[in-house]
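Take a careful look at the protein record below. Let me know whether the structure tokens fit the sequence:
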Amino acid sequence: ASIDMVNGNVVVGGRQDWQTAGFPLLLRATISSIKVDKRTGVSRVELKGNSLIPVVRLEIHGDVNAALEAVLAPADREEVLRHESYKALSDRFLVGPIAGLSDSTKQSLLAYADTVARASTAGLTRFKGNIYFVIDLGTDPIIHDDIKLSQGQRLAVTINERILGVIKGFAPHVADVPQLAGLKVQYIVGHKDFLEEMAAPQVDQIEFYVPSGLITKFAEADITTQQLAEGSVILVNGNRVSVQLSR
């Protein structure tokens, strides 16, 4: 990641709003090396992480100490930083009809989005006159093979393996936010014909709007996955679709 010091402010990856651009990584890491290019003044910092993210490399333009102080913190401040991050995110995104929710409820919503849904970001959106809590799952790291899966099959796999758990995980929060009509889960899924090796992948932009009442019934096993899908609105690249989740 590139870090710039601009008029005393920290800019990460070209973004001044990096602290509310998504959920904090909160990676346990140690500094393994700091090297300064005497010609350019650029500092290159390498952090040793864990088995999932073994190495993090930072390229810092400007005051290296100020930059590191902004993006790194002692391990014993992890929960404090998480709380501060959720507070900043809630002030930016949890506004309008749910702005009056208690701080603990907002923290709980964002903790669900971060640690249960493993979302990249969260927020609110209006759809057909109703307000939905948005869980943005980002982009599927897997590129699916068009030869093996049609769009409908690809959608069913994605919903079964990634989206249903996110929806069920929201059930404990439904009663806390009666102002919301439900949950919107969005996800980008790539696909291509693997026989065309040089072809760039295409994407399905999935938007899944689920009413709160159905989320509760689904979590309590009162309806099937198919009934959940049929009672929701599912869009792929802006077009409403139906999906067969079980055969």
